[in-house]
Amino acid sequence: MGNGQNVLPWAGREEIKMAIYKVNNPIITAYQARNAATGETVVMSVFDETQAFDAAKSLSAMTEFGATGRYYGTFTPDVVGDWTVLMHEANGKGPAVKAYTVGSYGISDIGTSVEAISGAVIGDLEVDIQAVSGAIISDLETDIQTISGAVGTALADDFSGLSSGISNLDSEIDAISADIADIASPAMVG
């Protein structure tokens, strides 16, 4: 199908956009033959970012996965841009088009960057949480010691007053006992 022109032979057909692929990394593209026909010669025509036919990256016959009627081919884009692949049986029937957006990074690069950023953010949050929780615990310990000291002082004052009151009560009982002992008992008449 490589006519060498910049005119796309499938003009008017809807293209299927795929995810971003990284420049200078191989892209595997797959094709399903009509009625899953096996033993077909499937042509893969690659068009670069300017939509010019790239004969060096195109295949005259894609490889079949076993005897499944499914075929694959690989090409490596060497420039950033939108690349297009046209696949069809050698007789021109069953055309399929796939478009690949090629960038200076790929989806896996984005995933790696997200993981790195996520790790850094989580690490910062863990440090912040430890600092805040340490400060809260320290404040709580200080408050508990202050309250404990105040309660201890109040109880000590109450016990001191109670002890003084008991001592005074003991003195009163002793005085009453002495007064009772001084009361003379009358003589017993018998």
Task: Using brief descriptors, characterize the structure shown.
single chain, 3-stranded antiparallel β-sheet, 190 residues, 1 helix, 4-stranded mixed β-sheet, 2 domains, Immunoglobulin-like, 40% helix, rod-shaped, disordered N terminus, 7 strands, alpha+beta
Characterize the structure shown.
With 190 residues, the protein is an alpha+beta fold. It has two domains: 16-105, Immunoglobulins (Immunoglobulin-like, Sandwich); 121-179. Helix content is 40%, strand content 23%. It has a four-stranded mixed β-sheet, with no helix packed on it. Strands 2-5-4 form a three-stranded antiparallel β-sheet, with no helix packed on it. A hairpin with a 5-residue loop joins strand 4 and strand 5 (70-75). It is rod-shaped and about 150 Å long. Mean pLDDT is 81; it is low at 1-7 and 10-18.
Short synopsis of the structure:
40% of the residues lie in helices and 23% in strands. By secondary structure, the protein is an alpha+beta fold.
Write the layout of secondary structure elements.
Layout: E1 16-22, E2 27-32, E3 42-47, E4 63-64, E5 70-75, E6 81-89, E7 96-103, H1 107-182
Parallel strand pairs: 1-7
Antiparallel strand pairs: 2-5, 3-6, 4-5, 6-7
Give the class-level CATH name of the largest domain.
Answer: Mainly Beta
**Overall strand count:** 7
CATH homologous superfamily assignment of the largest domain:
Immunoglobulins
Helix-strand sequence:
EEEEEEEH
Q: Look up the CATH topology of the largest domain.
A: Immunoglobulin-like
Distance between the termini: 152 Å
Count of domains: 2
Structural class designation: alpha+beta
Sheet with most strands: strand arrangement:
1-7-6-3
The level of helicity is 40-55%
How big a fraction of the residues is strand? Answer: 15-25%
Question: Stretches where pLDDT falls below 50 for ≥5 residues?
Answer: 1-7, 10-18
Mean pLDDT: 81
Q: Write down the overall geometry.
A: rod-shaped
Return Rg in Å.
Answer: 47 Å
